[in-house]
């Protein structure tokens, strides 16, 4: 088992990475938390696969654990669902000594973290990510939230998990599309911070991804430790590809395009803008595009996609400040910064060329 410690302000917690960890969830959690009652949140696709083994482990460590299964998909990440879950936790008699666990991908992790942040003004939660994207990115950093008509994750809070347990055995059950989706975030990590990671993408083995996951988590953990609440430009680097990507996800309708697929398109747009404004070479932009294509990620929008809807959504993005976008550009693979000279016209051209 590999362990990465995440430090963010006064918060610190471990990310455990290994094969077959679900059977020992109860033991790992018992070392960190002492309340007796807990709820396990999973969607209706993941629950039949893994919930029983997690519940058995929790109960074997003397926790009173109950399963809450909700519909799968990005649409479930809403204020309405969060309110329903808070009511459910109350009916299960969870109090301030209790805790919540998430079992699933990024949607469940974001939703569970947000619910834990507001229920009784905040209870602990444990993240058990079961997709590659969740294991290398969304499970750490403390950002939780739900979607609204204002945009992706427009309502949320910073609430760090008490523990993250990444069982790589869960990745073997993923459909190929979901497995490859996670590489959008890994490619992003390579572009903004680690050229060697970018070069190693083609060598990742699905049966033994532990070292790859550890390296990605270490990159994000180091950035979060520097700038927990995105008050400087350091944590903003993690938004490479996300300004346009989130707008595409919104325009497609939440749930109609995978998050990693939308971010892939956002990365293509960001690379194009980087060539024009930040000195990224055409050769490296082509390498970025090839890396995305190698993992079956989209690099062009369908001809009939509502591009105007993308452009309308862009100014509502959280990365706009006083009407100007703080846009992350890459100067070379492995080196990026936040630029303040990217205009809406630059974004329009990039979207038109997707």
Tell me about this structure:
The protein has 354 residues and is α/β, with parallel strands linked by helices. The protein has two domains: 2-173, 3-Layer(aba) Sandwich (Rossmann fold), CATH 3.40.50.1970; 176-353, Dehydroquinate synthase-like, alpha domain, CATH 1.20.1090. Helix content is 44%, strand content 21%. The chain contains 15 helices and 13 strands. It has helices at residues 25-30, 47-60, 79-91, 106-118, 132-138, 176-181, 183-193, 195-199, 210-226, 233-236, 242-252, 259-277, 282-294, 307-313, 344-353, and strands at residues 2-8, 11-18, 37-43, 64-70, 99-104, 125-129, 143-148, 151-158, 163-167, 320-321, 324-325, 327-332, 335-339. The strands form four sheets. Strands 1-2-9-6-5-3-4 form a seven-stranded mixed sheet, sandwiched between helices. Strands 7-8 form a two-stranded antiparallel sheet. A two-stranded antiparallel sheet has the order 10-11. Helix 3 packs across helix 4 (106-118), helix 5 (132-138) runs parallel beside helix 7 and helix 5 (132-138) runs parallel beside helix 9. The longest helix is centred in the last third of the chain and has 19 residues, at 259-277. The radius of gyration is 20 Å and the shape is globular. It starts with a strand and ends with a helix. The mean pLDDT is 95.
């Amino acid at each position: 088992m590999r362990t990465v410690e995440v430090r963010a302000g006064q918060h610190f917690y471990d990310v455990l990475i290994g094969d077959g960890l679900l059977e020992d969830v109860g033991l790992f959690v018992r070392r960190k938390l002492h309340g007796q009652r807990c709820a396990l949140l999973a969607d209706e696709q993941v629950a039949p696969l893994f919930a029983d083994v997690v519940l058995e482990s929790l109960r074997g460590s003397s926790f009173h654990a109950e399963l809450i299964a909700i519909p799968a998909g990005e649409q479930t990440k809403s204020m309405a669902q969060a309110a329903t879950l808070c009511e459910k936790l109350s009916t299960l008699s969870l109090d301030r000594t209790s805790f919540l666990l998430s079992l699933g991908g990024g949607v469940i992790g974001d939703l569970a973290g947000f619910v834990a942040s507001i229920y009784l003004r905040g209870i602990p939660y444990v993240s058990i990510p079961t997709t590659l994207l969740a294991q290398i990115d969304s499970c750490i950093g403390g950002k939780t939230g739900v979607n609204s008509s204002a945009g992706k994750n427009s309502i949320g809070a910073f609430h760090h998990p008490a523990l993250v347990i990444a069982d790589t055995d869960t990745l073997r059950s993923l459909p190929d599309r979901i497995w490859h989706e996670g590489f959008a975030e890994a490619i992003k990590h390579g572009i903004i911070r680690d050229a060697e990671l970018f070069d190693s993408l083609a060598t990742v083995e699905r049966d033994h991804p532990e070292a790859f996951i550890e390296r990605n988590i270490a990159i994000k953990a180091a950035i979060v430790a520097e700038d927990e609440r995105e008050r400087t430009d350091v944590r903003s680097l993690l938004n490479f590809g996300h300004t346009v990507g989130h707008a595409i996800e919104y325009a497609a309708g939440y749930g109609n395009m995978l998050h990693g697929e939308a971010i892939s398109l956002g990365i293509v747009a960001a690379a194009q803008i980087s060539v024009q404004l930040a000195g990224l070479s055409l050769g490296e932009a082509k390498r970025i595009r090839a890396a995305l294509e190698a993992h079956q990620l989209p690099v062009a929008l369908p001809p009939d996609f509502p591009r105007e809807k993308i452009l309308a959504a862009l100014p509502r993005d959280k990365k706009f400040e006083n009407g100007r976008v703080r846009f992350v550009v890459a100067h070379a693979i492995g080196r990026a910064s936040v630029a303040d000279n990217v205009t809406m016209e630059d974004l329009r051209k990039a979207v038109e060329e997707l």
